[in-house]
Amino acid sequence: MTNPAAIQGGPAGAVAARVSQANDTAAGIEVTEAFERFDQRDDIYSRALWDDEIRSKAASDFYKTHRMMMPRRGDGFRHRDYALRNAGWVGALTFSERGAATQIREGFQDPFVSCYPPSELKREVESPEAMTAEIKRIARTFGAELVGITDYDPRWTYSGKFNFFTRESEPLDLPEGLTSAIVLGFAMDKDLIDTTPSALASAAVSLGYSRDAIATASLAEYISNSGYNAVANMNDTALAVPYAIKAGLAEYGRSNLAITKEYGPRVRFAKIFTDLPLVHDKPASFGVREFCEVCRRCAEDCPSKALPFGEPTVEPYNRSTIKGVRKWSMNAERCFGYWTKIKSDCAVCIRVCPYNKDFSKWYFRAGRWLAGTRFRRVALWLDVKLGYGKRRQPKVWWGDPGTEKKT
């Protein structure tokens, strides 16, 4: 296993190494000696802007649909579907576009910029336990459905950030002394997700990002006004999935997604890195790894055949796969290729996942419990037999004449 002390340095780094390795084991994360921090320039969305292997007219048209109406025939891809999806981005894009003059793109390539100067008066924290409860309460008040806290782990910080304007990788400039990562989870609308693949389903994603941006930036502002560092980030700065798992909010699934107990894979995550004294949560398990070992619904239904059928491995598909972590990995090139083909993102792996349920209903909670036992194959059989995971027609969501919305 790679030594986090080599990344963090010094005695504090040695302590952090022991903490990280213990948390890795509890979280089911296996980091090998071949580990390398991931450069954001190599993620598939960045590569679509500079890498001739990915950059294409189809990729350009995919991004253009977020700026102009390019509807096509087919239920779920009409003018109204794209209009709703793009309207959902308003909150997130307001942040990302306000720094264009200074080549800053908050939430996607750069962390959020504070609206006010950080407080020079540092609030005294007498009890990290009380402050932790306070932060979680405020996070939920701002709109997060899930919130967990873990140690700041620089292994998951990007080795370089991608500059959207210059198309180059640049160094990150983070403050010294960060100790914690506050992880926020935002549930995406199930009825919308169930219409995927469609531009309509993508409205669940855009709305998730906008809720995410506003709540995360607001909580970071609260911490900054208390006199502490607060680096608020979404897709920028660091990988979200390891933090969500280590903060006890989720487990890792075959789909490459973080599977939560409350909403399954239907969650967007953000992080705030801080030096505010806080108590860290522990990783939690409810049987996802064992269930995914027998369930292959996401891989079987993936339109681009980008998801794995076999065991977790350290073998990368391409440069968009992180190196040195044994896990189920996705072929991001195939996945994104399908997105450009349909001119909208795809969430079939979320829709068909047996954990994509409304767990306010007791019988779905019973099914989740069964999936975490040695009778998990029975739970999988029932899920398929009862027809869960099928696509809902977008026109049903819209309530078109002659349709009836499924309850």
Question: Could you characterize what this model shows?
Answer:
With 407 residues, this protein is of the alpha+beta class. It has one domain (5-398). The chain is 38% helix and 11% strand. It contains 17 helices and ten strands. It has helices spanning 5-8, 10-27, 44-50, 57-64, 79-88, 90-97, 128-141, 190-193, 202-225, 241-246, 288-294, 297-301, 332-342, 348-352, 362-371, 376-385, 394-398, and strands spanning 30-36, 146-151, 161-162, 169-170, 180-187, 230-233, 251-252, 258-259, 267-274, 323-326. A four-stranded antiparallel beta sheet has the order 2-5-9-6. Strands 1-10 form a two-stranded antiparallel sheet. The protein has a two-stranded antiparallel sheet with strand order 3-4. Helix 4 (57-64) packs across helix 13. The chain is globular and about 60 Å long.
Structure described in brief:
The chain contains 17 helices and ten strands.
Report how far the terminal alpha carbons are from each other.
Answer: 48 Å
Nearest-angstrom radius of gyration?
21 Å
Domain count: 1
Shape: globular
Number of helices: 17
Helix content: 25-40%
Largest sheet report: 4 strands, antiparallel
Give the strand content.
5-15%
Low-pLDDT residue spans: 1-13
**Numbering strands along the chain, what is their spatial order in the largest sheet?**
2-5-9-6
Beta-strand segment tally: 10
Q: Overall mean pLDDT score? A: 92
**Quaternary arrangement of the chains shown?**
single chain
